[in-house]
Amino acid sequence: MTTLIDYRLDGQVALIGLDRPPVNALGQPLRAALAEAFEQAIGDAQVCALVIYGQGRAFSAGADISEFGSPAAFATPDLASLLSRLADSPKPVVAAIAGVALGGGLETALACGYRIGTASATLGLPETRIGLLPGAGGTQRLPRLIGAEAALEMILSGESVSASQALALGLIDRLVADGDDVLAAATDFARTLLDESAPAQRAWRYSDPAQGLPASFFEDYAAARSRRWKGQLAPVLALEAVRAACAGSLEEGLAREQVLFKQVESSAQSAALRHQFFAQREALKISGVSKDIALRPVDHVAVIGAGTMGGGIAMNFANAGIPVTLLELKGEALDRGLMHIRKNYESSVKRGKLTVQQLEARMALITGTLEYADIANVDLVIEAVFESLAIKQSVFCTLDKVCKAGVILATNTSTLDVDLIAAVTRRPQDVIGLHFFSPANIMKLLEVVRGRETSAQVLATTLHLARRTDKIAVVSGVCFGFIGNRMLEPYAREAHRLVLEGATPAQVDGVLTELGLAMGVLSMYDLAGIDVGYLVRESRREAIAHDASYFKLADELYAHGHYGQKTGRGFYRYEGRERIEDYEVVACSEVLANELGIARRVISNDEIHDRCLFMLINEGVQLLDEGIAERSGDIDLVWINGYGFPAWLGGPMHYAEQMGLSRVLAGIEHYREQLGDYGQMWFQAAPLLQRLVAAHQTRIQRL
Ligand code: CAA
What we know:
3 domains, 2-enoyl-CoA Hydratase, Chain A, domain 1, eight-stranded mixed beta sheet, alpha/beta, 31 helices, N-(1-d-carboxylethyl)-l-norvaline Dehydrogenase, domain 2, Rossmann fold, 20 strands, binds acetoacetyl-coenzyme A, 49% helix, six-stranded mixed beta sheet
């Protein structure tokens, strides 16, 4: 027997322990070892029942995701066939679940005749999150066990259920208290089954999983989610697989599931989502930061500034159970900030996302103050005041004076030089950028900006804290705008300029949303505020002075007080939340184009796509070359989690790889020639992109 399985006999019961750290992913070697152990137990006359369990912290996290997209994913024994064999066992098999049973891990448990779980176990089928569907019987066995409606919800939400929920659903047979020996409990259970001459397999609880559901159930379910699923393959095919479970025999359903599974497995969307899964984990591995570094304790946080951003940051920590002190200069501003936080929580209560008790518990974790002395002993301070270097530096001077040694001092700047802020303190090693995205209590992304002198310990502590508060952290070096906002500049530049050249805002945004972006860039500027964009440009007029023509329209909107959604007009008109095309904006672009000598013409959707996307990608490649981003996957994470880039396209860098780097380079060179002086000025291919294409590389990496 291989070391991947711990095989032992306890009397008549064979104990089969999956032993492939860290999470018992069911790659080919483990599948082969499990098949061998299973056959050994079945062939052993002394063995009357089997228990399958997981060594370490998981029962199993499912199939080995790294195998997908390669022949290894279906190499013998493939998981579906192995589990069908398990499900036909002539001897009772008990799955003993401690930790997680996810994806193929839960499907393994479903193929066992009986299941028990510890109170802290979690069970789920998260495959659709990585563009797959449960492909080892999950879409067929789960509906037969808990009914089609509950099964569909688990499969399409991808959310795990707790062991007690699993018990209520009938997904497990018994609950084992945490602290009790789950293996001993499973062995006892197996003995009881033998004593009672229980069958190796029971009849399914639902012979018709759709029993009691309306005939239009599946259509209605899909129709209600059509917007959320737009453009995505996995949820649609997962639903089809569950529908198949309600339409024929188990064998027929399993065969249909296999066909659908292979379709999603070979899709570009799943490749993109799997790329994102691994990128998220890679992003936490930072050069120069050892895994074993001792972290600083962070038990109390302070946030400076009770505006929208500061309030959202405070909520982020309170939501994770971490006490926060919120500091403002004036009582009124503080009261307004605290009231706004309460209102936010109240609206969560109204939507049924939070109980009143939870609201009060979270509010109790947030304390307001007007005194810096009250934050002298906190472990982390996050400054979220107005985006001005002078103001931020003055806050940091004060923090340096009042805060205890060992505190982490963070700035929430979205563009400014973290090193210049750190330089006003006597402890630049303790200073870091923590760039939250608005609303900070909701948005997943946290750009962690590593200053020139930020210590490895401070970096490691903040990355750990990001996980505690359920954020996706990406480390960026210092430059204007860091990874996200620096890339936004050329992307937005093309959008603005295309409107001057003849496209309408709705056409530009339409191309981007059609691609899958949550929002077009011009709508995004309307949402963020045309005035905010103007102020950012004002602080950078020098850098863009050589050609600021492309922002003339936005400057004009600013001059007219059309600040976007908040004033009801910007690139669009707004009636309530409805966005309406504004023909005055088109007329204004015509006048401006005339003044600037820009010839207006019909712009194709392809041109909009290529100019916006290729410039975005080009800047990302340049950031990688400069070392601002450590990996191209980091850039993808920033754009997926902070800027609404569709996860199923894998982020801009992955998307570029899918399109082909030579196509991107050729597009940039084409527009460099075609767009005259403007093209010569802005369409400069990143040297790394040129090197990668010359070297026939298909992946974006340093060279
Ligand atoms: N395959 C391959 N590697 C996996 C994996 C999997 N299913 N699950 C986790 N890992 C790896 C991670 O990449 C990570 O590796 P590194 O340490 O090298 O970075 C390591 O295991 C630990 O993972 P986390 O850092 O995520 O640890 P965690 O404790 O925070 O979370 C977890 C553990 C909840 C299991 C989380 O890793 C997770 O959600 N994993 C994915 C679960 C999943 O999607 N399963 C479905 C697989 S597809 C399938 O099963 C198809 C099918 O129907 C047959």
